[in-house]
Each structure stands twice: as C-alpha cells, then as structure tokens.
Amino acid sequence: MLTAQRIHPSDGPSNDYHLLPVTEKQLRYARAIAQHSALEIPVEAQRDRRVLSAWISAHRPASESRFDRYPSGKQVAFAERIARAKRRTVPPECFHDKSAMSAWIDRNR
Questions:
Q1: What DSSP state is assigned to residue 3?
Q2: Confidence band for 1, pLDDT divided at 50, 70 and 90
Q3: Residue 98 — φ and ψ, nearest 5°?
Q4: What is the CA radius of gyration of the chain?
Q5: Where are the domains of the chain?
Q6: Tens digits of residue pLDDT in 36-91
Q7: Which superkingdom heads the taxonomic lineage of this protein's source (predicted)?
Q8: What DSSP state is assigned to residue 56?
C-alpha cells in the first residue's frame, strides 16, 4: 500500500522560473557602485537581473561625457536599415541626439 507523502510548499518546484539570473559582469559593476557609494545591494537584486539592472540605473554615477546624448550603435544601425528599406536618409542631426533618432525611428517604422 502506498502512503501519501506530505509535501511542504518549500520542497516543491520553485515559482521563479521567469527570473533571469544576474550576470557576473552586472554583479561586478553593481558591487563597484555599492563600494564607491557606501551602499548595499538588496538581496532580491542579487537574484533577479531586472531588479539589479534597475538598482544599477538608480545608483550609478552620472556621466558627464559629451557623447552621452549620442544614439547607440544599435539604434543607428536600426535607423539606417529602416532608411535603406524605405529609400530615405536619416537626418544628420539624428546622429547627434538619441531622442531625435528615437523620434525619427518611431515616425519611419
């Protein structure tokens, strides 16, 4: 005769399959920010990539480079692909301002 085993909720499968584990590079960067700012990284942020990314964004030092406003390489490549497909040109000012590039992409998709 089979006896029923009691399964404790903590013994069962975890419900965190949707959580992406943090990357080593991400964790190193977060630790550098925490050490520089005398902060602690929350435990939940050390487990979930999205939570840690939000923590990094909230606590990273403000960069003051003149290139901060420039669009990313991926953004430029995407805009150029759209321009080729629609036989248009990307306005030159879009290459100097990421919000202008984003607006151009949204208008021309």
A1: P
A2: very low
A3: -70, -30
A4: 23
A5: 19-59, 73-108
A6: 989 999 998 888 999 999 999 899 887 778 888 899 999 999 999 999 999 999 99
A7: Bacteria
A8: H
